[in-house]
Write a structure and sequence with these properties.
The complex is a heterodimer of chains A (245) and B (877). With 245 residues, chain A is an alpha/beta fold. Chain A is built from 7 helices and 15 strands. Chain A has one domain (5-244): 4-Layer Sandwich (Purple Acid Phosphatase, chain A, domain 2), CATH 3.60.21. In chain A, helix 4 crosses helix 5 (112-118). The longest helix of chain A is centred in the middle third of the chain and has 17 residues, at 81-97. Chain B is 47% helix and 17% strand. In chain B, the strands form 7 sheets. An 8-stranded parallel beta sheet of chain B has the order 1-10-2-7-6-3-5-4, sandwiched between helices. In chain B, strands 11-16-15-12-14-13 form a 6-stranded parallel beta sheet, with helices on both faces. A 6-stranded mixed beta sheet of chain B has the order 31-25-26-28-27-32, sandwiched between helices. In chain B, helix 27 packs across helix 29. The chains are: A alpha/beta (245), B alpha/beta (877). The interface between A and B is large, with 45 and 52 residues.
């Protein structure tokens, strides 16, 4: 696939494969608890789904290392024992199944550091893998210029594409691929099962990387249960959606 | 004593009639005998004699019988309900026996009505005190959500003898630790405007509240006050409920025949079939203008809030010399309370010439003297028409004057049938929702807060309530299980369980310290809806409902306040639009429109059958015109329009009716296939039928099917092959419910209703840990919840309730089954025709956009197909 050649990364469902590393992003563990605090009494349900999907991805990609590109934890206020447990359980799962584990700090990760320490893991600002620099994307690091990389891989945005036929609307998670200054830019979808994310055709971007560029030329690669759909460029979809979507 | 030995045997053999029509009528002497002398004196100083409804009910109320009084405005209903009670309280006061407790609870659906009643009680109480020469110490107080903490604590110290409240507040009082003790001696409960509660979940909720009250207070007398509804027996049963599996006793007083009606259907133009919409619209405003000018105060009803706004706007614009802010006002539920109150007060003071309302002024709040009610287009049911028109002419023997102005040809036929049925006293059947598991959840939680319960004892109590009289044990247990948090893992349960259930001991009770607070701040059945503000160039141009906002996508156009706008984006609860033109891509009527009642629909079809046979028998124009004029009580203008409308349809194709369901195939713009079903059974029935038929078709052809539903029929359309007749043949009265429940599974309607049900079941809490949760935030997450619940258990009680609500309350699966029975038995034949342009009867139907899509394809199939379509389109650029 084109994507593969240009960005030296392969899409494996909700994870990116770079060398023998899997990159996943925006898991937002403990999201249910924050729903509870909002008065929505939904019990914990996505943890087993996440593990199941990750196992499948690892099996298909046969990678032995993993990068969690930020927002491992969906965090608001103090952490309850339950939430500590869930995050730690996940980190222990990673340790049992991967050799190298890299955690990158996201904007929700103010406490992740402490949990990670318990598992003897560090939380990094960013991580370089071959010619790719992996960073969460909630802010543009001031020393980014010095980075010796061709590709930037970010999360944070939770991109998805809303497609419509008549009254039916379905949102699908997607990757975005384009350019930011001198770099190739890849935006990853979120690795969680609570929401599809924000519709890139409808909503305004969150990440300063996306705010800074002309998004019209970005390529859209939608993923649904291991199938990848190359939708072309945002501007092309916009042009035909009036008639079609 | 009336009980004699031989009577006993008679009741054993013959089932005792428990709900009976009141046959007795008492004369002044009999009634005066039961009243305290001071009250007698006061009454004589105020009135010549008793009204008919008082004559038929006061003695029975005095003796503690339950009673349902159905009477028009001006029949002295406040005194009917309260006179006997005031008399008894006066006796007690005289003998210094008045205790610090509540003797009577008055419940009404509206706070405004509560305040009116309190004022109305002021006068007799003061009058009686004047005669007595001293204060009686009879206390009354209004208690609603608006009552301040200070007033509440005052009420606890000195409880009102007459408590005036709303259904929701009463159910909160039942768990108030100290105040509930004051309710233990309640002797009377009066439910005002009971008809407006019975047909929705508020009434279901109240019905359980009354049973819970009865459990702590013992037997009390139930007095229901209702507008004209049919059948009154059902309403009475709803009021009193069951005991030991049988209805409690109730007498029905019906004095509606006393009020004379002066109703006419008016057609603004000579021939509404020929006239173009603009001409009709102009003529309608001229007609409104002259009607208003001929009367002192006119009340105009439209069916929608946007309609209300547009009538006010147009009257002011077209007749600026006569109408301005000071003498014409709107009154509908989206307006602020202050604004509505201002309108009501101005009306009472006679300052307004015209007030325009949607449904908010239907109920009996005091609005002073109205001498004319105008209905702009069909009110969709006979009872609604009567109720609206009944707002005019206040004294009992004064006629109620109503004019129904029709806006198009379908409307003309519909309104004419309403007129006929209103004059002939044929009123639509009411529909009372039953076995609502969400409302039940709330109440079981409330009961658990009151005390520990034996499971069977509580089941018994719940089944005394009319809507739950047939509640299955399984459904009851499924609600207990949900409340006990059994859908979550054991270690998490402490967060989710609201009650504990001990199946061994057969007991349940509340869990958690916050239970009472949680209950009191979250109960009720009216879903939180927030309207989003619509902004155009920085100006707020109106509001749209959240359900509607959810459907909008960038580029969509829709109508608001008579203008067309293009949707750009939404941020929070603000929607940004720019002015646009051309037909709207999303119809805006569906969320607001009132559905046509089934009974009325059937009568319209009967009329169609008669007309069909007249044409077939080659009757002359004069003959048919005379027939229409006589049968429908309409003038010759209207008769002429109706004649032409039917003749066109007859000549062009065929006249559908109850004997013949016409199925019209036609190919529309761009080769799109349409199938129009002329099933005039009202929108609720058609909603059910259309989705079931669409499901059968979609399944066969693996393609999404567009559905558009109206009162007069429905159409299906698809970009692929579409069959119609054979799909209808696959449906039977037996399999309808099953197919329909699959058909609605992926709809927005189910998702939306599920969210409301989850709110009522307290799975989504409006207020939690002292904070109010914004609807906007919860709305997105309601969808997640539905997805989660479906994965969890397809028979989860809240999901089951959401499906029931969609199929039975929002749609009308029961009558849809009847239609299928008619087809199956051969009483109604299916007739297929092919047309190049839609027939006259189909015209209004196809003119509206589609309503929903029946999603048949799996998500992945849908994505693959749409992806291919997008790629092809891009390559074709």
């Amino acid at each position: 696939m084109e994507f593969n050649k240009k960005y030296s990364a392969t899409i494996v469902d909700l994870a990116l494969k770079v060398e023998d590393y899997l990159i996943i992003s925006d898991l937002h563990l403990g999201y249910e608890q924050s729903l509870n605090a909002d008065g929505i009494m939904i019990p914990r349900f996505q943890y087993p789904l996440i593990i199941k999907r990750l196992e499948e991805i690892q099996r298909k990609s046969s990678c032995n290392n993993i990068v969690v590109n930020g927002d491992l934890k969906h965090e608001f206020g103090q952490i309850s024992r339950q939430e500590w447990n869930e995050t730690q359980e996940f980190l222990e799962y990673l340790k049992a199944n991967f050799d190298d584990i890299v955690l990158i700090k996201g904007n929700h990760d103010n406490f992740t550091k402490f949990i990670a320490e318990k598992s003897n893991l560090q939380v990094e600002e960013c991580y370089q893998l071959g010619d790719s620099l992996i960073l969460h994307g909630d802010k543009i690091q001031s020393n980014l210029d010095k980075a010796d990389a061709e590709n930037l891989i970010i999360g944070h945005e939770h991109p998805s594409i809303g497609i419509r036929s008549g009254e039916r609307v379905e949102k699908i998670k997607c990757y975005l691929a384009g350019e930011y200054m001198k770099w190739n830019l890849i935006v990853m979808p979120s690795f969680n099962f609570v929401t599809e994310g924000s519709d890139i055709l409808q909503e305004r971007p969150l990440s300063p990387f996306l705010k800074a560029i002309n998004r019209e030329d970005m390529g859209v690669y939608a993923v649904e249960n291991f199938e990848v759909f190359d939708f072309g460029k945002i501007k092309d979809i916009s042009a035909v959606r009036e008639r079609l979507l | 004593m009336e009980t004699k030995q031989n009577n006993h045997n008679a009741t054993k053999n013959k089932k005792r009639e428990m709900i009976t029509k009141q046959e007795k009528k008492y004369d002044d002497e009999d009634i005066y005998k039961i009243l305290h002398p001071w009250i007698r004196k006061w009454f004589k100083s105020q009135f010549e004699t008793f009204t008919e409804s008082q004559r038929q009910s006061l003695l029975d109320i005095h003796h503690g019988s339950n009673i349902l009084v159905s009477s028009p405005t001006g029949s002295g209903k406040t005194l009917t309900a309260f006179l006997s009670l005031i008399s008894q309280l006066t006796y007690m006061s005289e003998m210094d026996m008045l205790e610090d407790k509540v003797y009577c609870i008055y419940i009404s659906p509206l706070k405004a009505l509560d305040n009116d009643i309190e004022k109305n009680l002021e006068e007799p109480l003061r009058g009686i005190e004047e005669i007595a020469g001293h204060e009686l110490g009879i206390r009354k107080a209004v208690r609603t959500g608006d009552t301040s903490n200070y007033q509440r604590s005052k009420m606890l110290k000195n409880p009102p003898h007459i408590l005036i409240t709303t259904p929701e507040t009463l159910s909160i009082l039942l768990v108030a630790p100290k105040f509930r003790e004051k309710l233990m001696g309640v002797k009377y409960v009066i439910v005002d405007e009971i008809h407006s509660l019975a047909d929705n979940k508020r009434g279901v909720h109240m019905s359980l509240t009354l049973e819970r009250l009865q459990n702590i207070a013992g037997n009390f007398t139930r007095i229901g006050l209702s507008a004209t509804v049919h059948p009154l027996q059902k309403m009475a049963h709803f009021l009193v409920g069951n005991q030991y599996g049988e209805p409690r006793d109730c007498k029905i007083v019906d004095v509606n025949y006393l009020k004379k009606l002066d109703i006419e259907v008016m057609c603004p133009v000579e021939d509404i079939v020929e006239a173009d919409p603009e001409e009709t619209n102009d003529a309608m405003y001229d007609m409104l203008y002259s009607l208003i000018m001929e009367h002192k105060t006119t009340l105009i009803f439209t069916n929608t809030r946007s309609g209300t706004e547009s009538v006010v706007f147009n009257l002011k614009r077209r007749f600026p010399d006569d109408f301005n802010e000071s003498n014409i006002m709107a009154h509908h539920s989206s307006l602020s309370r202050e604004l509505r109150l201002e309108t009501e007060n101005k009306l009472k003071d006679g300052e307004l010439k015209v007030v325009v309302s949607s449904t908010s002024l239907e109920l009996g709040i005091d609005i002073g003297y109205i001498d004319l009610v105008i209905l702009v287009s069909s009110p969709k049911s006979v009872s609604r028409a009567l109720q609206r028109i009944g707002r005019s002419g206040h004294k009992l023997h004064e006629k109620s004057k109503g004019r129904i102005i029709v806006v198009d040809r379908d409307d003309l036929v519909e309104c004419s049938l309403i007129l006929k049925n209103a004059l002939e006293g044929k009123i639509d059947n009411i529909n009372i929702p039953h076995n609502c598991l969400d409302v039940l959840s709330q109440h079981i939680y409330g009961m658990a807060i009151e005390r520990k319960w034996n499971i069977d004892e509580s089941y018994e109590l719940i089944r005394n309530s009319y809507p739950y009289r047939e509640l299955s044990h399984n459904d009851f247990i499924s609600v207990l299980s949900y409340l006990a948090g059994e859908y979550t893992s054991l270690e998490e349960r402490y967060v989710y369980a609201k009650i504990w259930v001990d199946y061994q001991e057969q007991m349940f009770g509340k869990r958690g310290k916050l239970a009472r607070m949680l209950y009191s701040t979250n109960i009720g059945t009216i879903p939180d809806r927030t309207a989003a503000r619509v902004k155009c160039n920085g100006q707020v141009v109106g509001r749209i409902e959240e359900d509607f906002m959810e459907k909008l996508q960038k580029g969509d156009t829709f109508v608001l306040g008579g203008n067309i706008y293009r949707f750009n984006y939404a941020r929070g609860m603000t929607v940004n639009v720019t002015p646009s033109s051309g037909p709207p891509t999303i119809p805006s009527w569906f969320s607001e429109q009132l559905p046509l009642s089934y009974d009325l629909a059937v009568d319209i079809q009967r009329f169609r059958d008669i007309m069909d046979s007249k044409f077939k028998m080659d009757r002359s124009k004069e003959e048919i015109m005379d027939f229409i004029h006589e049968y429908l009580y309409v003038d010759y203008n209207s008769a002429n329009s109706i004649y032409h409308f039917f003749r066109e349809q007859y000549l062009f194709a065929q006249i559908p009716g109850l004997k013949k369901l016409l199925v019209e195939f036609y190919t529309g713009f761009g080769g799109r296939k349409f199938v129009v079903f002329h099933s005039l059974f009202g929108r609720r029935v058609n909603d059910a039928l259309s989705r079931a038929v669409a499901y059968v078709i979609a399944k066969k052809h693996h393609r999404d099917v567009m559905i558009s539903v109206s009162d007069n029929g429905f159409y299906l359309s698809s970009d692929g092959k579409i069959g119609g007749l054979e799909a209808f043949n696959d449906l039977t009265p037996e399999n309808l419910e099953k197919i329909l429940s699959r058909a609605i599974d992926k709809t927005e309607t189910l998702a939306g209703r599920f969210r409301h049900c989850a709110g009522r079941s307290l799975m989504i809490l409006r207020r939690y840990k002292g904070q109010e949760k914004s609807v906007g935030r919860q709305q997105v997450k309601g969808k997640i919840l539905l997805k989660f619940v479906k994965d969890l258990d397809d028979n989860f009680s809240i999901l089951k309730e959401a499906r029931r609500e969609v199929m039975e309350d929002y749609m009308d699966v029961k009558n849809a089954k009847k239609v299928l029975e008619m087809i199956q038995s051969g009483k109604m034949e299916l007739k297929q025709i092919n047309t190049k342009i839609p027939t006259p009867f189909a015209f209004n139907l196809v003119a509206q956009g589609y309503l929903d899509v029946l999603k048949y394809e799996d998500r992945i199939e849908f994505i693959r197909r749409m992806h291919q379509a997008v790629v092809n389109e891009i390559e074709g650029e």
